[in-house]
């Protein structure tokens, strides 16, 4: 029997929505009932241009036939198989394909279900790796101010977004934070990587001196910080972090949940910046956002540290019921095929200069105090209303939706990350509409 799908349910109370002003939303709901390629369809039948790839995840656009058909076939053939002491071929095939596109030196895949779980997994792997090598005192984790690493306890502990942390108690112990890299006084309106700020990586030496290198397991950073408002790494910054972590035997984790799978014009940010971490956390674009799946990618050194015990023993007591789920694996393979067949990473790199020029055309727009960009990502920072943080950007979000474009806001920053299939006229529509929205804001 078919489900009775009403455009707007008559009772919105039961669903406690995540990261949402629930009372505001339920008083005037914004319902999406369909999607295709670059557009959502609203309950009222309007077309809304997707300027955010959903939540940074629908890199190939929406409802792509190859992906949806792969899911349907797999659901009819093998709906679920356990990954504990059992396997199914498609999970291994997807892992091989991920490694084929990963940076040279990354050789293994550990499946999760989300970016948050990928981060938790990577943090656990880092601590367990040192213990397996006889350095069990290395338990300290280093994140970064304004970092976003999901919403589980480990992720918000190493993360540095205040509102994601302050309601949840003392969090994990043994965590410290590097300074963020946002230097508006020196780097405002930078195109691509800003010139100033590589020296901020040197603060890791201060943290090492404070705690002792022998106590530090890992440093985790986003190569490009996304959810905090698009902070691009200064020239030389990531290279310095890599050099310092290597010097002290500390693992470096790149959180590539946003930057992975083409967002910067390369498969991963590690390739874009030519900096090889020890682990990379992924999700979102892995399955085009169609079905939950994440993965931690590791070097052979990290993996092999666990493989010294008896062959009949479990090497790592960690995993999830849905690790390597068959339907998610099928979606992942189909997604990677769409990326390859349509050369979407190369397409991103080709349109990135046009995107850069378009977003920086807002430099003189009303309320704009900074513009930042890389690949198909942009952050438009607005001057806040005194005493009312976030209000102006949220008003822009609501007005943009009314005018037919979807943007994201964090604080008083507008973030955009459209699907990699975006065309130049759609770039123009997105930015022209946003200019109109900003011109009408108080």
TrEMBL record:
Cofactor entry: pyridoxal 5'-phosphate
Database matches in PANTHER family: ADENOSYLMETHIONINE-8-AMINO-7-OXONONANOATE AMINOTRANSFERASE, BETA-ALANINE--PYRUVATE AMINOTRANSFERASE
MF term (GO), any: pyridoxal phosphate binding
Protein name per the record: Aspartate aminotransferase family protein
Stored InterPro entries: Aminotrans_3, Aminotrans_3_PPA_site, PyrdxlP-dep_Trfase, PyrdxlP-dep_Trfase_major, PyrdxlP-dep_Trfase_small
Superkingdom of this protein's organism: Bacteria
Record's keyword terms, sorted: Aminotransferase, Pyridoxal phosphate, Transferase
PROSITE patterns with a match to the protein in the record: AA_TRANSFER_CLASS_3 (PS00600)
Keyword set includes Lipid metabolism: no
CDD domains membership: OAT_like
Gene Ontology BP annotations: biotin biosynthetic process
Family designation: Belongs to the class-III pyridoxal-phosphate-dependent aminotransferase family.
Keyword check for Cell division: no
Pfam hit, one: Aminotran_3
